[in-house]
Each structure stands twice: as structure tokens, then as C-alpha cells.
Write a structure and sequence with these properties.
The complex is a heterotrimer of chains A (about 425), B (about 100) and C (about 1000).
Chain A: H1 6-14, E1 32-38, H2 42-54, E2 60-63, E3 79-80, H3 87-101, H4 103-107, E4 118-122, H5 125-140, E5 146-148, H6 150-156, E6 172-176, E7 180-181, H7 184-197, E8 201-203, E9 208-213, E10 219-224, E11 227-236, H8 242-247, E12 256-265, E13 275-278, E14 283-287, E15 293-299, H9 311-324, E16 332-343, E17 350-353, E18 359-363, H10 373-386, H11 400-403, H12 409-413
Parallel strand pairs in A: 1-2, 1-11, 2-8, 4-13, 11-18
Antiparallel strand pairs in A: 3-7, 4-6, 5-6, 9-10, 10-11, 12-15, 12-16, 13-14, 14-15, 17-18
Helix pairs in contact in A: 2-7, 2-10, 3-10
Chain B: E1 3-6, E2 11-14, E3 19-23, H1 37-44, E4 53-59, E5 67-73, E6 79-84
Antiparallel strand pairs in B: 1-2, 3-4, 4-5, 5-6
Chain C: E1 13-22, E2 25-31, H1 35-41, E3 48-49, E4 56-57, E5 70-74, E6 80-85, E7 96-98, H2 113-116, H3 136-148, E8 163-175, H4 179-188, E9 195-198, E10 215-216, E11 219-220, H5 221-234, E12 238-240, E13 243-249, E14 253-259, E15 274-286, E16 290-292, E17 305-307, H6 308-318, E18 326-330, H7 334-344, E19 351-354, H8 361-369, E20 374-376, E21 378-384, E22 391-398, E23 401-402, E24 406-409, E25 412-416, E26 419-421, H9 424-428, E27 432-436, E28 441-446, E29 451-453, H10 463-480, E30 492-493, E31 518-520, E32 525-526, H11 527-535, H12 541-548, H13 561-572, H14 576-579, E33 591-592, H15 593-597, H16 614-619, E34 623-627, E35 630-635, H17 643-656, E36 659-662, E37 667-672, H18 676-683, E38 695-702, E39 708-718, E40 721-726, H19 731-745, E41 752-755, E42 760-766, H20 770-774, E43 778-779, E44 792-798, E45 801-807, E46 815-821, H21 825-836, E47 842-843, H22 846-855, H23 890-893, H24 896-899, E48 904-911, E49 922-923, E50 937-945, E51 950-958, E52 967-971, E53 976-982
Parallel strand pairs in C: 1-7, 8-9, 8-15, 9-12, 15-29, 17-25, 18-19, 18-25, 19-20, 36-47
Antiparallel strand pairs in C: 1-2, 3-4, 5-6, 5-7, 10-11, 10-30, 13-14, 14-15, 16-26, 21-22, 22-23, 22-24, 27-28, 31-32, 34-35, 36-42, 37-40, 37-41, 38-39, 39-40, 42-46, 43-44, 44-45, 45-46, 48-51, 48-53, 49-50, 50-51, 52-53
Helix pairs in contact in C: 4-10, 6-7, 11-12, 11-13, 17-22
The chains are: A alpha/beta (about 425), B mainly beta (about 100), C alpha+beta (about 1000).
Chain lengths: ~425, ~100, ~1000
């Protein structure tokens, strides 16, 4: 692995960039691995990376039915924050935000983590109450988050319309300054390169068709398009396909896969300094380093794997953007796309062991998995290596749906009275 | 935007008139107090989440207000059929996708 | 007229001069010109700077696929938009345009230093550096990168224009009005079928506009076009120009955006700028034609280097010679015809350089007769010229070897790398593509939608072939609708068909590692960038795209995708289908946000629901708050009052005399039928069987998970009739939930549910004088403790209006809720107001309602509960009908965690220092612990109350019900507040005040 730094960049530039080598080799499956990870997104590749770097396990294959980073890792709006309400969520996401701070240096790959701040706008009294509850809880959890008046919101992000007579006037906002964005593809590539350098096989374009189990019920390995691969442990983080993969091991999941759309505008010079989220009107916006406004919308209402959403949702999303940022009405949409989000009933993920011995799952991230990539990968690797959850992911069990101990971030946002 | 046939109204109408209502043919246990926590969790939360032909519920919210069932391919988003609530699940081999 | 404007050519009207400005300079053009054609007519090729290297660029195309010539366009205040394609924007008198991404000027741009250091800025360079020191990314590197990136500048004013949208339906939608589309529309124009033909250009005709030499059915192409368009109109075909099919959605829903005013000098009154059509078509014919591919060689991006077909378009459609001494480099026959047209219009074509050594005789003859030098079997290896191309370097190729260079002077360079079908909309349908080795391109294969593709879009070249295929596909569409059509195929003369070969980069004798051979012009992606990406392990075309940004520019890969694929495929040593084409994503061309937002702006962003009493509140100075879609009166300040003062006054007046409150937004559901009581027993936690007629009861609704979903007072109006109220925000959700259980779980129950929220206006009167005020107005019931006790309801007459009167209290005072038919609401309000004057009646808003109910310990679902609270948690175990065998939520409540110890329970809090707590503040048992602290609950409601003379609060606290009298701590940023746990009722715990 050639180290990435300015010196090597200059040296290579002078040499016509001939000496750069593959960031990860094209691997063919071996007969047996200690760990097979299904799904080469950020979470899966990251888990392989941390297994290799922190747990000394390098005989790993990460297998994907397509190209690495081609699922939700490469389709999201790259928002990173940790100002979640419940202690469990705040710890999980803040663990991620901690890792994001130095991920570029850790991976020797610039993932462009940008602490540009995430501002969540409150548009009614209920929002204000809810955001303040978040802010107080975050403060006592050591998570950065503070309240801004409408005027302070405008100062932080000038395109925001704070007119009092707006349909949903801005009544203030919750700002997490440590939050921000990162370059999504680079996260997958950086983990892939780091894992491959430590001996992890990354096997692309090879669908896992089933999980095979031993007579005692424990995991034996995976059936793939390239034949059976024996594995001591199998870990699944295949967003958009988890239900199907896990079903082959008779593990049922409380997931519904919904289409989620996102879009970008044509690129313009810097105009939008941070990330703004407005849950009440369903508008999420930031500006990429390339200059595009990156805009997220809500999920369509039905289960679908088509990676294709409908027009009404896009109309509503753009209307919401124009409502909160009226100066963008004459901007143009350049490109929109869809992803598949796996949603749990409480909108919190499931990370941990399963009823099947040596089978692990990391799923149910809904619309918010990208931000958790390093933290999730880190605790998932721990869980796989030690066959027990890390304290941070211990509450995120599959069993909570039986006991009722949900981590209900959706309900916490509650409803207007 | 999907086009959906309401079996009660007998009309095919745009999706904005309808509300999705989750997987179909999940009956609430006859005597909830008699089922285990696992069975109750299964009823409440566990879903087939089918990739392929999915039996699902819709409500003609801005029309007749009725809940009905549909078989839809979740890969192409095409409806194979819709049928009244309470009617049995149509057999897969009797269904073909609309259009081509 | 400049030497570049050719008289007698083009479809512009030179008798109608139009002038506009470009970078402040006045430019003269003619009616019908685009900005690009007018600039070219004035000899101006330099129109912009590229994204990364800031290289000078001119128009490379003549249509919506243009990647380079992007400009800012302005029409006075508020009407500015960046990144407009100069090749599409029609000019009008006074239009202001500006070049972009340059400083200080287009001709001298300091950003071009990047070009000199281009070897540093290779694909993905930013992933490899800018990492040290850590803090520099946010403060130094990223701001620098962000400032350098981006093209134009964002608008900074609010958009004064309006946008519209419409739903439409048709039998056959034809997209593209070139020969294939025209023929398809003609074939489909069968009696009784609704046919729509759309085209993104200002006029219909497509290729025909650039090929006037063709003769169709004996008529010159343009004459035939006019008569054909007239015939289509006569046959009832709706022809929509300036209308782009932006996206293909499920079941043949096509998004069309029609531009209505960007081309007009004077904006018509009350006309939207753009209109979004949601067109549902039974059949779609895609006739979008093909896009010409650039050739990839060093210096293929200088201003003046242009697609040959586009040069032909500038000449034939706009009467513009893009150069007086152009040269041509091509690998396809089509560019020869372009050269001939330019030569015939007076240009001195310097040479036709063809990469192929074998050329059709007809073409050689054409060149010879025009005195054009032909270099067959040559490659292009470079261009010269700082702000405009002045020469091209070409070399002979023999048996794979590149020979000695020759420099050919030229003032424009026409290039053609062949043509590739426009597959964007077909791809939106999830259509599958098939690789065609002969044409070195993908062709459409299968689509799940009811859609066919005609003409050049499926690889057929020439007008005759397009017309024939269009007619056949139009006929097919008609037959798919169960009708029959006879499509006549017009005869074509002077057609131009041809073949060509496809290339990756052109062969060169120079170091390919140093070549600036552009593939994606706008994003400055070169062939060597693509090869570097492959070298670094990017083996999927999606990785190559994302690593290099090839195809991600505002032309959406129209110019770059196929060349990029061919080069990546070569670098990988794999056939193109194994590398794959990136997905074409909507929209087809960049589309104004306003077109999507449509009518939903400002006050129309979302409907504002108002009660019948809202107008009174507005007239009487109410401040409003949005509550779900409603606007509700929040408080009624008198002159000079703050919110706190107003609320204190409203509270005091209600407690001491009488207050009036508009409760019309409460959800109301009529539950009727023989099984109504059984239904209520199953839905709500409470028992309903023994509730007498004309009595009401507080009802609690759970989800089947056991958590509180909603609440409200429910009156039994008859043996089989319940008047159910819900929270304001919960009305629709509760009705949906009820319908769900009724229709699908208990279809045997004979019950009918009706939303009556908007049928009733509801006015609440509360206070010691409420009964006295109301009694004289009521007929049908005595408002005495005996005749109409607390929690009674009755149908009666109030102030002469038919009413449902409830004796309920959400304040702790004597309370009534009067429901009258909604339209009578304001009349009743005013009647009560007048009758109440003697008692000093006071109107109060939602804030006072919140304070009064909190004093009494009444919860607000969604504020004191959050979806994780059980009835027991909320202190309402009394609301559960324990004898009932089942109700929604009963089983859920028995789950392990819901019966566990230590759940958070609703309690009252009184601060020890008498300060007011902040809602949302977190509670701890041990204030001395370090962060992260163990939080045991939070403050759900907190108010300063005059009634109790001190601030009160409600809170959810772990094990709270067993901690009465204990002290908890609320750590705030500046201090920690101690508070004592109390019961939730702070006012009149004996309910003495409820009695008349």
C-alpha cells in the first residue's frame, strides 16, 4: 500500500501517476475464513477493518453482490450528527462522531469529515420542547448541542428564511457544531483499502444466496454465486437485503425496506455553510465541497426494492427547501436517486448477536446509517470478535422487540397536540 | 407515483389517494392474552418484507376509506392484483404483472 | 452583419435584431438566436471556464447537452439563475448574461494556475492529501476547495416568479419531435386517441431543422415539416415545445416541464415561468434521437473545438458559421456532411481528417468537388490557441504507428466520434440495455413500462430510417391500445446516412500521461484520470465515475458517459458490458426547483386549517401558533402586554370568573351502530358498557404495543352513539386506526365511523361563572349540579342553535364545551361573548389552556407522554377496564419491560428555590456525578402560575410514583436546581371548584 501524503502525491505527479497501486486487490474467495461479512458497505468494510486492526482477526472475507460502497453508503446525503435523545442512541452516535474526527488520519485516506455544524430548525412549540429536551439530555451525556434563536439561526446559515409570517416560522434551532458531513464514497474506499492492506479479502459481484448452518444450528458458512465458503462466523450488514439474507438462517427481522430519495442541485459557489435539517417541513440541506446543494427527502410509504421513488415526494421536498430557503427557488435540480432503507419499528438499529450461534447482524439503520459508520463498524467488530456486545451496542438487541424495551427515537419526536 | 386499483370503487387511481398500511394477512391473535411475548412480538413487528411478490394492505384514504389487499412486486413496483380485505391470498401462479 | 452570419441560412429572423449583454458588453443577435448562436455570430467562442483547471471553454454543442457554455442569466431584480446553458437560452432584448467561474475576467483568470499544476490535480488527489495537520481540513483546505469549486453563484434574492403544475392524461405521448417522433405522432393520430408530442427545443423538427437539404415526399424538409406540423395539429395532436420530459416514473407517469417565459422580452401578466405536467400516458414513444460523441485527444477542449453536428446546426438553424476556416476531425461519415454544408456556406474548410483509411467514394467526391483536402487514416494529437483554437496537429497512422505530425491552421475544429442513442428516459423506466458491438454502444433492450423507443434512439441513422421506424412504433402504440392504424412512410431524398468507428483516446505520438484529452469537459476529467482510477483498483464503472467525477457534471454524462466507458473498458481489458454503464438519473436536464415546488410556496406551502372562530381571534389581536396543520390562537395580548402578562391575565380571569376558548380543532369522531359500545370497549382502555346515555368519560387510547397514543373526552349520546374527541394532531391518525381495526380485525361489528371534526365548532367556557353565563342561553337542560352534573352531555339548544353540550373541564373550573354546527361557530362565540360581558368574559388561547390544565395535573399526550409511556406510567391505571378480556394495548402492557420496575412515571415537581424549570430539562438523582450523567427523567411541562403562586412542573421520573417527597436535581448549564417530587395535581385536589 502506497502511503497517501503530499510527498507521494507530488512524486507521483512528476512520474505521471504511474506508480499508484490498487487501493484494494480483486480477490477470489478462499475455501474458508474466520469471519465472512455479508455486505461491502461502510459498516461491513469498517467492521473488517476494526477486526483486523483491533482484534487481530485478518482471515476475513467481505462479500458483496455488487460493487463495494454501492448501497446506501454511496447514496446518502452524508449528514453526520449525534444529538439523539436517548442515552443509548446518543452514546452510539457520539462514539461515531468521536471516530469521525480523526478517521482520515486513521485510514490514511481523506474522507473529508467536515465539522461544519448541523442545525435543526424548530417550527412549532412542540419542536421547541422536543429540541430543548434533546439539548439538555445531550449536555448531560457530554454531547455537543445548543439552542439558537431564530436570529442566531439566520446568522449561522444566512439562506434560512426567518420571517415571522412564514407558513411554518422558524422558532429557533438546535445546533451541533461538532457534527457535519463527509465524503461518502471515500469512507467505503478508505476502509476497503485499510482492510485489504491487512489481508482482508474483498469479494465484489458475488451474491450471497444463503447462510448454511451446521447440524447443531450454528453457522457453517455462506452459499454464494461462486460456491460455498466455509466460515467460523458470519456477520450480515447488507442494508436493503438483510431480511432475505437472514431469512436463509431462519432469523426473522422487524424490518420494512422503503425507498428513500435524495437529490443535488447544480453546483454553485459557497452559499450554504452548514447542514440544516427541518423535520417539521421535511427539508434537509447541505452544500457539497463540489458546490452542489445536497438535499434529502422522506421515504416513500411502501416496501420497495426498486431504488426508484415517486414524483410527489420530490415535489414536496423541493417545496420544503424553497419554503425554508426561498433564494434557491431558481436553482436547478441536477440529479436525483433512490436507495433502500431498512426501517425498524422504533427507528433504532439492531446490532448484535442473533438466535443462531456465530451469526451476527447489523441492520435497521433506516435513513440514518451513514453517520454511524465508524462507530457501528467498531462495536460490530467487537461483537463479532468477542461473541458479546460492546457496552455501547448492548441495548440494540433484536430481543428488545419482545420485551418492549424499545429505543424509540421516532416516538421521542412524538406528535403535535 | 403508482396507480392503484381500488377493488371497492372499481377504479384505478393515483397513489396520492391511498395510504399504505403494511404487510397483509397478519391477523391479530384471537385471544391476545393467551399468546407468548415472542408471538406478540411476531404479530406486532416481524415482517416478511418480501423482495418479489408482496401481499400488502392499502387504504383508499381519500376515496371510499376502505382497507384492501394487494399483491405487488416490490422489485418492479408493479401491482399484480388488488382484492377485498378478508378475501384469501390469491395464489401466485394465477397472477401476472400488469402490462408487459 | 458579421462575417460569421450567413445570409439566407438559418431559421432566425435577421430583420428583427435583438441585443443583449454578455459580461456587460452589448451583443447583437437576431430573433430566434440562442445566446451561444448570437455570440458565435459575433465571432465569440470563449464563453466560460472549466470547473477544476479553469481552462477557457466555448460551446462544444448546440443543445441541452452542452457542458461548457454555462452562463448566469438575469432579468432584473430577483430573476437571476446560474449555470444556464448558453446553447439553450433564447435571447431577448435586454437579457443580461455573464460568464462564470473566473476571476478577474473571462480572458484572464487567475484560477488557471490550476491548469499549470494539472499533474497535481489528478483524479482523486484530494483523497490522498490535505490530512495534516488535522485542524487544517476545516479551517484551511476545505474552505479553499469549496471556494475554488462550484460554477456560477447562487441566486441571493427571493424569486418573484410563479410556477404552475397540471395533471394530464393521454393515450400516446411522443417524446422528441424529430423525424421519428413526427412520424410516430402522425401514425398515432387516430380518430379518438389523444396524442401529445413534446420537444425541449423552441421549435419542433429535431434533426430536420439542421438538415434542410433533405427532400421528403417531394418537398424540401422545412416545407414538409411545416405541413406535417399543420397536419398533426389538424388531427388533434397537442404539440408542446420548450417542454422537457424530465423523468419517467412508475406506470407511464412522465414529468414534463414546460418553459413559458424565459424566452420572452416582456413577461405576460399572471403567467407562470414554468409549468410541471404530470402526464399519465397509456403508451409512450421515446424518440429522443442520438447524441454526438466528442473525440478524445489532447486539446480537444479549446474554444472553437466543437461537435461537427453542432456546427452544422449553428449554420443551418441559426445561420452562423462557427469559423471561416474550419478543420474537421472525425471517425464518422456524418462530419463530412457538416464540412460540406460549411463549405457550401462560404467557409474554407482546411481539411477533413478521418481516423479511417477507407472512406466512401461519395464522400471523397463531395470533398474533392469542394476543394477540401482529405487526410484519411490520420489521428489528431493536439491543438493550439490560447483563447480559441488556431491549429490542429494531426499525424498519419500506419499499421498502428503514429507518424510525423503536421499542423493545420484553422479557426474552428469540428469533431465527431460518432453517435450514441439518448437512453436517459429509457433508463428511468428501469429499462435494460444491450451492448451493440458494431455500433460500440448500448441500445435499448427491455423495459417493464408500456413504452417503445424509435429512430436514432435505438441506433437507426438517417431521416428515412427514422421516419419509417417512427411510423412503425406509432402504429405499435396504437395497436397496443386495441386500435388499428395505417402509417404511411414518406419517401426521402438527399438523406444522409453513414457509418463510423468508435475510439477510446485517439492514438498519439506524445506522452499519453501528459495529454489533456478531455472526456468530461465540465468536470475536467481526462482520459488519463480514468486510467489512473482503474490503476488504483476502481473496476466498476460506478467506482470510476465516483473517483473521477466523470459523467457527474450538469450535462449528466451526455457527452462523457460512453467515451468514459470505452476508455475504462480498455484500461480494464474487459468488454463494456462487463464494466457496465452508470445509471442515468433524472432529471433529463437540470430542472428549476420552482417547477417542482409549483403552487406550494409561502402561504400555500401547506394548507392552513382555520376554525370558524379564527377570524374573531385575528380581529381581536390573537397571536397564533401552528399546531399540526391548524393555526390556533396562542394568546390574546392587550396593548403593551408580553406573552407572560397576557397568559397570566387570561388564567386569572378564567379562575376568577369565566374564560372562553376555541376548542374546534379537537378531533371528533362519531361512533355509531348496534355494536358501538363493544367497539369502544375494544378500542379504548376504559370500560364503556355501563356508561349511561348523556354521560361522558375520559378515554385513553393505546397502541397494541401498550403505549399511550391519544386521549379525549367521549360522550355517549345514545345507546349506540358515541361522540369521541381526540387530540388536535391525532384526529386523522385515530380515525385511521379505528377504521383499521373495525374493517380488518372486527368486520363482524356493526359500527359506522365518521369524522366530524369539521362539522362542529366547539367552544369551551370555563370558570366559576360559566354556568351562570350559559344557563340562560340553553334550552333543553337545566345547568344545575343535579340535572347536569360534571361529565354529562346532552343534545340541546344553545342560543337557538342545535348543540351538543358537554359538561367537562380541562381547567379544573366549572366547564362546558358547546358544539354547534360549524358554520354557526362565530355567531355562538359572539353571543357568548356578549352574554359574558357582565362577567368580564376573557378569551384565552392554547397557552393558557396548557397552564390551567397543568395546574390540575391533566396530561397532554405528546408533551407529557412521548410514545413510550403506559397508562400506569402516566398515573392513569384507573382508566383501564381491568375486567375487559381484551382491548387494544392490553397484551402489549403485559410485556416484560412494560411491567418492569423503575419505569419513568409522571409526577409533579416543585423547585426548592421557587424558580421555574425549563421544559425538557433532565433530572438526576446524584448531581455530583461526572458527565455522562445517569439521567432518570425529564421535565415535560413547566409553568409560572399565578394560581398557585409559584412555578409548577410535571416530569417523568424513574420510579417516580414511589418517590413522593424525595428531592431530585436538575443540572442546568449554570447551576443545579433541586426539586421535590409531588403529586401531579397542584390545584383544587378535592375537585370542589368543579361544582356549580
Amino acid at each position: 500500500m502506497t502511503r497517501f501524503n503530499a510527498f507521494n502525491l507530488v512524486k507521483n505527479a512528476l512520474g505521471g501517476h504511474k506508480a499508484w497501486t490498487e487501493q484494494w486487490p480483486e480477490s477470489q474467495p478462499k475455501a474458508e475464513y474466520d469471519v465472512v461479512i455479508v455486505g461491502a458497505g461502510g459498516h461491513g468494510l469498517g467492521a473488517a477493518y476494526y477486526l483486523a486492526t483491533q482484534h487481530g482477526i485478518t482471515n476475513i472475507a467481505v462479500i458483496d453482490k455488487g460493487w463495494l460502497g454501492g448501497g446506501n453508503t454511496g447514496r446518502n446525503t452524508t449528514i453526520i450528527r449525534s444529538n439523539y435523545l436517548y442515552d443509548e442512541s446518543a452514546r452510539l452516535f457520539d462514539h461515531s462522531v468521536d471516530l469521525w474526527q480523526t478517521l482520515s488520519q486513521e485510514l490514511n485516506y481523506n474522507v473529508m469529515y467536515s465539522n461544519r455544524g448541523v442545525l435543526m430548525l424548530a417550527h412549532n412549540v412542540h419542536d421547541v420542547q422536543s429540541f430543548k429536551r434533546h439539548i439538555h439530555a445531550n449536555r448531560l451525556n457530554g454531547v455537543d448541542n445548543r439552542w439558537l434563536s431564530p436570529e442566531e439561526c439566520k446568522e449561522y446559515c444566512p439562506p434560512i428564511n426567518i420571517a415571522k409570517d412564514a407558513r411554518y416560522p422558524v422558532m429557533g434551532g438546535a445546533l451541533q457544531e461538532r457534527a457535519g458531513t463527509a465524503r461518502h464514497d471515500a469512507v467505503a474506499w478508505g476502509y476497503a483499502r485499510g482492510a485489504a492492506a491487512r489481508g482482508v479479502d474483498i469479494i465484489q459481484n458475488c451474491a450471497v444466496t444463503a447462510i448454511r448452518r451446521n447440524a447443531d444450528g450454528s453457522v457453517a458458512g455462506v452459499e454464494t454465486a461462486k460456491g460455498f465458503i466455509k466460515a467460523k462466523k458470519v456477520a450480515v450488514s447488507a442494508s436493503g437485503h438483510n431480511t432475505q439474507v437472514m431469512a436463509t438462517a431462519d432469523v426473522r427481522l422487524p424490518l420494512e425496506s422503503m425507498p428513500l430519495q435524495a437529490l443535488v442541485s447544480e453546483p454553485v459557489k459557497p452559499i450554504f455553510p452548514c447542514v440544516v435539517m427541518s423535520n417539521a417541513v421535511h427539508a434537509y440541506c447541505s452544500q457539497s465541497d463540489k458546490g452542489e446543494l445536497v438535499i434529502g427527502s422522506g421515504t416513500d410509504q411502501y416496501v420497495s426494492y426498486s431504488q426508484r421513488g415517486g414524483l410527489p415526494l420530490i415535489e414536496h421536498t423541493i417545496a420544503a427547501i424553497s419554503e425554508v430557503f426561498p433564494i434557491f427557488n431558481r436553482m436547478r435540480m441536477l440529479r436525483k436517486w433512490g436507495g433502500i432503507t431498512d426501517n425498524t419499528p422504533d427507528r433504532s438499529p439492531i446490532i448484535g448477536k442473533t438466535p443462531v450461534q456465530n451469526l451476527y447482524v447489523n441492520c435497521g439503520w433506516g435513513t440514518g446509517g451513514f453517520k454511524a459508520t465508524p462507530g457501528s463498524a467498531h462495536v460490530f467488530a467487537w461483537t463479532i470478535a468477542k461473541d458479546e456486545p460492546h457496552p455501547i451496542n448492548a441495548p440494540f438487541t433484536l430481543d428488545r422487540f419482545r420485551t418492549g424495551r424499545l429505543i424509540d427515537e421516532a416516538a421521542a419526536a412524538a406528535v403535535a397536540h | 407515483m403508482l396507480l392503484i386499483h381500488c377493488p371497492y370503487c372499481g377504479e384505478t387511481l393515483p397513489e396520492v389517494e391511498f395510504a399504505y398500511a403494511g404487510e397483509a394477512h397478519i391477523a391479530r391473535p384471537e385471544n391476545p392474552s393467551a399468546v407468548s411475548d415472542e408471538e406478540w412480538a411476531e404479530y406486532l413487528f416481524m415482517r416478511d418484507n418480501v423482495k418479489g411478490v408482496h401481499y400488502e394492505r392499502w387504504r383508499h384514504l381519500h376515496g371510499c376509506g376502505r382497507f384492501f389487499n394487494a399483491a405487488r412486486n416490490t422489485i418492479t413496483d408493479k401491482f399484480l392484483t388488488t382484492y377485498e380485505a378478508g378475501a384469501p391470498r390469491p395464489a401466485l401462479d394465477t397472477l401476472t404483472e400488469g402490462g408487459k | 452583419m458579421s462575417k460569421y452570419r450567413v445570409s439566407g441560412r438559418g431559421r432566425i429572423d435577421t430583420s428583427r435584431p435583438v441585443s443583449f449583454t454578455f459580461d456587460g458588453k452589448r451583443i447583437k443577435g437576431a430573433k430566434g438566436d440562442t445566446v451561444a448562436s448570437a455570440l458565435l455570430a459575433n465571432g465569440i467562442h470563449l464563453m466560460g471556464r472549466s470547473f477544476k483547471y479553469h481552462r477557457p471553454r466555448g460551446a462544444v454543442a448546440a443543445g441541452s447537452e452542452e457542458p461548457n457554455a454555462l452562463i448566469g442569466t438575469r432579468r432584473g431584480p430577483g430573476r437571476f439563475e446560474p449555470n444556464t446553458r448558453a446553447t439553450v437560452q433564447e435571447i431577448w432584448e435586454g437579457l443580461e448574461t455573464n460568464s462564470q467561474n473566473k476571476f478577474p475576467s473571462l480572458k484572464f483568470d487567475v484560477g488557471a494556475v490550476n491548469d499549470a499544476a494539472y499533474m497535481m490535480f489528478s483524479a482523486g488527489f484530494y483523497y490522498k492529501t490535505f490530512m495534516w495537520p488535522r485542524s487544517f481540513w476545516d479551517k484551511v483546505y476545505e474552505p479553499f476547495i469549496r471556494a475554488a469549486a462550484g460554477l456560477g453563484v447562487s441566486p441571493k434574492e427571493e424569486d418573484p416568479d410563479t410556477y404552475a403544475s397540471r395533471n394530464a392524461f393521454c393515450d400516446v405521448l411522443v417524446i422528441g419531435s424529430g423525424p421519428a417522433g413526427l412520424a410516430a405522432a402522425r401514425a398515432a393520430a387516430v380518430e379518438g386517441l389523444k396524442v401529445v408530442l413534446v420537444d425541449e427545443n423552441a421549435e419542433a423538427g429535431g434533426t430536420l431543422l439542421s438538415e434542410p437539404q433533405a427532400v421528403i415526399d417531394g418537398k424540401p424538409a422545412w416545407d414538409w415539416l411545416s405541413s406535417e406540423l399543420a397536419a398533426l395539429k389538424a388531427a388533434g395532436v397537442k404539440i408542446m415545445t420548450r417542454t422537457t420530459a424530465i423523468a419517467y416514473y412508475h406506470q407511464n407517469l412522465i414529468g414534463l416541464v414546460e418553459k413559458l417565459s424565459d424566452h420572452l422580452e416582456v413577461l405576460p401578466q399572471d403567467t407562470p415561468r414554468e409549468r410541471l405536467w404530470r402526464m399519465r400516458a397509456k403508451q409512450v414513444v421515446l424518440a429522443q434521437g442520438a447524441l454526438e460523441k466528442p473525440l478524445v485527444f489532447h486539446g480537444n477542449d479549446r474554444p472553437g473545438v466543437m461537435l461537427a453536428g453542432s456546427a452544422q446546426t449553428y449554420l443551418n438553424r441559426y445561420g452562423v458559421l462557427v469559423g471561416t476556416s474550419p478543420a474537421v476531425v472525425t471517425s464518422h461519415d456524418s462530419a463530412w456532411f457538416s464540412a460540406f454544408d460549411l463549405a457550401d456556406a462560404g467557409a474554407k474548410v482546411q481539411a477533413i481528417v478521418d481516423t479511417r483509411s477507407e472512406i466512401r467514394q461519395e464522400l471523397l467526391d463531395g470533398a474533392k468537388s469542394r476543394g477540401i483536402r482529405v487526410l484519411a487514416g490520420y489521428t489528431a494529437t493536439g491543438t493550439e490557441g490560447r483563447l480559441r483554437v488556431k491549429s490542429v496537429r494531426v499525424n498519419p497512422m500506419q499499421s498502428g504507428k503514429v507518424g510525423a505530425p503536421e499542423t493545420i491552421s484553422c479557426d474552428a475544429l469540428l469533431m465527431s466520434g460518432g453517435w450514441t442513442p439518448s437512453l436517459h428516459l429509457f433508463s428511468h423506466t428501469q429499462g435494460k440495455l444491450a451492448w451493440d458491438d458494431d455500433r460500440t454502444t448500448f441500445l435499448p433492450d427491455y423495459t417493464p413500462e408500456d413504452c417503445v423507443i424509435a429512430g436514432a434512439g435505438r441506433g437507426l441513422w438517417g431521416i428515412a430510417a427514422a421516419l419509417a421506424d417512427g411510423a412503425e412504433k406509432g402504429q405499435q402504440a396504437v395497436e397496443a391500445l386495441g386500435r388499428s392504424a395505417i402509417a404511411a412512410v414518406p419517401a426521402v431524398k438527399n438523406d444522409r446516412t453513414g457509418t463510423g468507428v468508435s475510439h477510446k483516446e485517439l492514438p498519439t505520438d506524445l506522452s499519453p500521461g501528459k495529454a489533456k484529452a478531455f472526456v468530461d469537459y465540465q468536470n475536467d476529467v481526462t482520459a488519463k484520470d480514468l486510467r489512473l482510477a482503474v490503476r488504483e483498483g476502481m473496476k466498476s464503472i460506478e467506482h470510476v465515475k465516483r473517483y473521477t467525477t466523470n459523467g457527474m457534471a450538469t450535462d449528466q454524462g451526455k457527452m462523457s458517459n460512453i467515451n468514459g466507458l470505452n476508455i475504462a473498458s480498455d484500461a480494464l481489458g474487459r468488454k463494456q458490458p462487463q464494466v457496465g454503464l452508470t445509471t442515468f438519473r433524472p432529471p433529463y436536464t437540470p430542472t428549476t426547483f420552482g417547477a417542482f415546488a409549483g403552487y406550494h410556496r409561502g402561504g400555500h406551502f401547506e394548507v392552513t386549517r382555520k376554525t370558524r372562530i379564527d377570524s374573531w381571534a385575528a380581529e381581536n389581536g390573537a397571536v397564533f401558533e401552528p399546531v399540526s396543520q391548524w393555526r390556533r390562537a396562542w394568546y390574546f395580548p392587550k396593548a403593551g402586554e408580553t406573552m407572560d402578562q397576557a397568559v397570566a391575565r387570561e388564567c386569572a380571569a378564567t379562575r376568577s370568573s369565566v374564560g372562553i376558548f376555541d376548542a374546534s380543532t379537537l378531533g371528533k369522531i362519531e361512533v355509531v351502530g348496534p355494536d358501538a359500545v363493544e367497539f369502544m370497549n375494544r378500542m379504548y382502555t376504559n370500560p364503556w358498557t355501563k356508561l349511561g346515555v348523556n354521560r361522558c368519560r375520559y378515554g385513553l387510547l393505546l397502541g397494541d404495543d401498550g403505549f399511550i397514543r391519544d386521549d379525549g373526552v367521549i360522550g355517549r349520546m345514545g345507546q349506540d352513539k358515541f361522540h369521541v374527541t381526540t387530540t388536535t394532531g391525532g384526529a386523522a391518525r385515530v380515525l385511521n386506526m379505528m377504521e383499521d381495526y373495525l374493517q380488518t380485525e372486527w368486520p363482524d361489528l356493526n359500527v359506522w365511523l365518521t369524522s366530524t371534526t369539521e362539522q362542529w365548532s366547539t367552544i369551551a367556557l370555563n370558570g366559576p361563572n360559566a354556568a351562570k353565563l350559559l344557563a340562560p342561553l340553553v334550552e333543553g337542560v337545566e345547568l344545575t349540579e343535579e340535572a347536569f352534573p360534571h361529565m354529562s352531555c346532552v343534545e340541546c339548544t344553545v342560543a337557538g342553535m342545535p348543540a351538543r353540550l358537554f359538561r367537562v373541564s380541562f381547567t379544573g373550573e366549572i366547564g362546558f364545551e358547546v358544539n354547534v354546527p360549524a358554520p354557526m361557530g362565530r355567531q355562538l362565540w359572539e353571543t357568548l361573548w356578549k352574554a359574558g360581558e357582565q362577567y368580564g368574559i376573557t378569551a384565552y388561547g392554547t397557552e393558557t389552556m396548557h397552564v390551567l390544565r397543568a395546574e390540575k395535573g391533566y396530561i397532554i399526550v405528546g408533551q407529557d407522554t412521548d410514545g413510550t409511556v403506559t397508562p400506569d406510567d402516566a398515573g392513569m391505571a384507573w382508566a383501564i377496564g381491568k375486567a375487559k378480556p381484551d382491548f387494544v394495548g392490553k397484551r402489549g402492557l403485559a410485556r416484560p419491560d412494560l411491567t418492569a420496575k423503575g419505569r419513568k412515571q409522571l409526577v409533579g415537581l416543585l423547585t426548592e428555590d421557587g424558580s421555574k424549570l425549563e421544559e425538557g430539562a433532565q433530572i438526576v438523582f446524584d448531581p455530583a456525578q461526572p458527565v455522562p450523567m445517569k439521567m432518570v427523567g425529564h421535565v415535560t411541562s413547566s409553568y409560572d402560575t399565578g394560581t398557585t403562586g409559584r412555578p409548577i412542573a410535571l416530569a417523568l421520573v424513574e420510579g417516580g410514583h414511589d418517590r413522593m417527597g424525595e428531592t431530585v436535581h436538575i443540572p442546568m448549564p449554570d447551576r443545579t436546581i433541586a426539586a421535590k417530587i409531588t403529586g401531579t395535581v397542584f390545584y383544587d385536589p378535592e375537585n370542589a371548584k368543579l361544582k356549580i
